[in-house]
Design brief:
mainly alpha; Vanadium-containing Chloroperoxidase, domain 1; two-stranded antiparallel sheet; elongated
Length: 307
């Protein structure tokens, strides 16, 4: 049976263009104001050409779309049960009532939607586009969000299809006669073998990390406001993970791995593709670019660089 693959690969590339030296400013009676602390410490954004931005947008959108394509499901789980502390955490936190579990699942859906939209609507569109009146910055931030979520969601889909771990609620429906008779979802549990790793948690932490990076490096609400936004995003993302355990949708290990993948996606993508990291660490003008990678069995994104 043929599998559909979504592949996101990262290869590092850089170049070393000569830094242009500005002319000496003309003497002036009034000295120019010194930059603020935020401006002085903020890493510069690397230049992004129209072709690179267009290709990146199309490929990232394609990766996201490809994750929704129908693919063969595992009829039987390839991995059953918890590891390490999974069973102990599940016993302590999962809700016993079917209605309470459904409520927790619905709440996690709502929180993920809020987190995904916050850096798009609040940070990019409202603050960068409308308040600052900077459409270029708004577009750059929207592209960051698209790329980071493409990486995170692409990896989540790959692992769910490859690993085929049985969800804890599906395991309970199979092993517990009382659960079978009391839980309507036991008749046809959705995606019973897609537990590893938690997609809700990975998306939530991708958005939370994006909020932290954008607020700390671009400075949208001022130092205190940016810190509050970052902390709020991380708190909401953590709540999503806990709700997935409470809803009996995932084991603790599913949530922890999802949080790690999401946080790395939301943090690394802006730094590798948009902020001039090389300039920050003292490497003159190193840069990166991306290109699509497509063949008969896979579609993905490549990040190229030269050192």
């Amino acid at each position: 049976m043929r599998r559909s693959w979504v592949l996101c690969s990262i290869v590092v590339l850089s170049s070393f263009p000569l830094r242009a030296h500005a002319d000496e400013p003309a003497p002036s009676a009034v000295a120019p104001p010194l930059p603020s602390v935020e401006e002085a410490t903020r890493p510069p954004m690397r230049e992004l050409g129209v072709v690179e931005a267009t290709v990146s947008s199309v490929v990232s959108a394609g990766v996201l779309a490809a994750t929704f394509l129908p693919t063969p499901e595992h009829e039987t789980p390839q991995w059953r049960g918890g590891i390490l502390f999974d069973d102990a955490v599940r016993d302590a936190f999962h809700l016993r009532s079917p209605s309470d579990r459904q409520l927790a699942s619905t709440a996690s859906d709502a929180l993920v939607g809020t987190l995904v939209l916050a850096p798009v609507l609040v940070d990019a569109v409202l603050m960068a586009g409308l308040v600052r009146g900077d459409p270029e910055l708004m577009g750059r931030m929207l592209l960051m969000n698209l790329q980071a979520h493409a990486v995170s969601f692409g990896l989540t889909t790959i692992f769910k299809k490859l690993v085929g771990r049985e969800r804890p609620n599906a395991r309970a429906c199979r092993e517990d006669p009382e659960r079978q008779s009391s839980d309507p979802l036991c008749e046809s549990p959705p995606d019973p073998n897609a537990s590893f790793f938690s997609g809700h948690t990975s998306l939530a932490f991708t958005s939370a990390a994006l909020m932290c990076v954008q607020h700390s490096e671009i400075g949208l609400f001022g130092q205190e406001g940016d810190a509050v936004m970052c902390a709020t995003g991380l708190a909401l993302a953590t709540s999503v993970g806990l709700l997935r355990i409470a809803a009996d949708k995932h084991y603790a290990s599913d949530v922890l791995v999802g949080a790690l993948v999401g946080a790395l996606s939301g943090w690394l993508v802006p730094w590798l593709l948009h902020f001039d990291v090389a300039d920050t660490v003292g490497i003159d003008g190193a840069s990166a670019t991306i290109a699509p990678m497509v063949d008969e069995q896979q579609i993905g994104i490549q990040l190229f660089g030269v050192f």
